[in-house]
Amino acid sequence: MNLYSVLFLAFLGLMWILEVWLARRQFRHVRLHRAQVPLLFQDHISLAAHQKAADYTVAKLQVGIASKGLGIAIVLLWTLGGGLTWLDSLWRKLGWSDLGTGVAVLLSFVLIGTLLELPVRIYRTFVLEQKFGFNRMTGTLFFQDFLKQGALMLMLGVPLAAGALWLMEHAGNYWWLYLWLSWLGFVFLMMWAYPAFIAPLFNTFTPLPDESLRQRVEGLLARCGFKSQGIFVMDGSRRSGHGNAYFTGLGNNKRIVFFDTLLESLNPEQIEAVLAHELGHFKRRHIFKNLSMMALLSFAGLALLGWLSAQPAFYQGLGVGYPSHYMALALFMLVAPVLTFFLHPLLTYLSRRYEFEADEFAVNMTHSQALAQALVKLYQENAGTLTPDPLHSAVYDSHPPAPVRLAHLQARGAS
Q: Which residues contact 36 (CB under 8 A, 6 or more apart)?
């Protein structure tokens, strides 16, 4: 035990205490308001639907807390429990080069972590989501997705890990800066490649078949000055009953995507309003702002790692006996989520501000009433709670609570 051990355990313990405290607040608040639909929604959402949303929220929270508790235990086993040292010793016995050993350790570390999380993913999909009528995933499709994700992890992970370790070894004291620049390049590459090459591995994307809806959407795109490579419908109903719409891609490879479940639940005017909201994120430069925040945080994180990786006490304090570049990366992956947890309120605040700005843009481009009606339907269809605890919501929820958001719209002319 040293100073790094004490700081690590202090931050980890404080995070867990705050998560449990916030979860208890959410439990009490949602259950307290379960018996009555908020006044703003009483003409649109039934008591049964409201209670389903409350029960779904509580059930998700219970699974989430159990999952986080398991996650903390796993982090402790990897670090102070000696798990990383054990894994490192297994691969070192093969006598490979430091680069080969490092890639093997990092990939096996990620693979083991994925396997340890698999039971929770299975429970969420086939018990929790099934219980509330959202799951449409078959066991076969679930494991097909799992295998595809594993294959992608290998295809992308091997060169990424090898490149990162090579930079750490050969790029001098400022390797972390070159690694940050390389990481940014990879992020932009994935944003460009995802819609055309990765997403189709998991879902089928077909051109929007409804000609009148297509003309309405194209008219909206023209008014917004947004150019895309197409308007597509995704077969989201193969996996879930939840609905959504988004745009994806970068540069000339941008696409508009509707979940088929969304098209089934909303009318054309409401679909146009939802899309206008998504386009509001583009027009208000929220994508650029989020990327800038991600770049800033990753810069700070890698700069910190550059300093910590040269401190032998850092490794010793977190249970690693043999310092190495790949152990530094593995420890960074374990420690970073603990530190970034305390940034949640700031990131949530920014995200909510962007949501309000996107709503205002949509109101200016379409009918305000259509957006309000669409949001109410989406809250109902997705069983989103109408009565979250304000403090819990301020920490975790990237979107404003339903009553706050609808009141904001009403103040701008929605009814």
A: 47, 50
Q: Quickly tell me which residue has 């374990």 as its tokens.
A: 334
Can you count the helices (H) and strands (E) in the chain?
17, 4
- CA-to-CA dists, residue 183 to 109, 179, 262, 299, angstroms: 20, 6, 34, 10
Q: What does the alpha-carbon distance between residue 167 and residue 159 come to, in Å, rounded to a whole number?
A: 12
CA-to-CA separations, 275 to 213, 262, 266, 370, in angstroms, rounded: 12, 11, 12, 11
DSSP per-residue codes, 165-181: HHHHHHSGGGHHHHHHH
C-beta of residue 10 within 8 angstroms of C-beta of residue 324: no
Check: CB of residue 164 under 8 Å from CB of residue 102: no
Place of tokens 């995933």: 137
Crossing angle of helices 98-123 and 325-340, in 10° steps, is: 30
Reported as type and span, the H/E element at residue 365 is helix 344-365
Residue 75: C-alpha distances to residues 25, 110, 118, 259, 337 (Å): 26, 12, 16, 36, 11
Answer for the pair 145, 125: CB distance below 8 angstroms, yes or no: no
Amino acid at 406: L
The upper half-sphere exposure of residue 345, i.e. CA atoms within 13 Å in the direction of its Cβ, equals 7
b/e sequence 304-330, b meaning 16+ C-beta within 10 Å: ebbebbeeeebbebbbbeebbbbbbbb
The tens place of each residue's pLDDT in the chain, 415 residues long, gives: 899 999 999 999 999 999 999 999 999 999 999 999 998 888 889 999 999 999 999 999 999 999 999 999 999 999 999 999 999 999 999 999 999 999 999 999 999 999 999 999 999 999 999 999 999 999 999 999 999 999 999 999 999 999 999 999 999 999 999 999 999 999 999 988 888 889 899 999 998 888 888 888 888 888 888 777 778 899 988 888 887 788 777 766 778 888 888 888 888 899 988 889 988 988 899 989 999 999 999 999 999 999 999 999 999 999 998 999 999 999 999 999 999 999 999 999 999 999 999 999 988 888 778 888 888 888 888 888 999 999 999 999 999 998 888 888 887 764 4
Residue 234 β-bridge partners: 205, 259
Reduced to 3 states (helix: H, G, I; strand: E, B; else coil), residue 384 is: coil
pTM, to two decimals: 0.90
d(CA 231, CA 247): 9
Query: Pairing relation of β-strands 231-234 and 205-207?
Result: antiparallel
